[in-house]
Request: fold
Amino acid sequence: MKRYLGAAAILLVASAGAVVLRADPPDVSEQLLTRLRTTLEQPAAAGHNHHGTQPAVDEKTPVVCGVHVYGFEPAQAAELADVRTVYGFHLCGVAEPLRPWDVAVKLAGPVIVDLSSDPPGVQVVEATETIRYVDRLREMFPPKYADLASKEALTATEMSDLRGRYDDAAGL
Reply:
């Protein structure tokens, strides 16, 4: 009986190891979410040079971002290293100590991230004195992503994750 239990234990461990070895790596979309969030949360990128507001962001004040990816180019890229441009939406909050989300400085909107440069380039949609916001959006984004950007932001799950990470960073 002990011999069968030992053999069963060995088979169970070997099977578990095989499952771990066969686990698929995160797909490109999941890797992009992580890469964009990490890029946008860096102090150098945190202000994104938009919204007319430059929050006091330094190495000590964390910025916490949620990201929703609309798509990327080239669309057939199978690996993160092959992606040059990402189109999406971002919502970032400056996590000052004990400052609740509802009154935090936030930056939000459609975003284009150029992964072919180091560090990645970040562009946001801004209206100008002569170009309306919606026209600028359609000028910057390919049509299929511009349509998404005009009506989609973070999902409920993405927002919940962002709020939890913000609360942790702000010490709430």
Q: What stands out?
A: The chain has a mean pLDDT of 82. Residues 2-22 form the longest helix (21 residues).
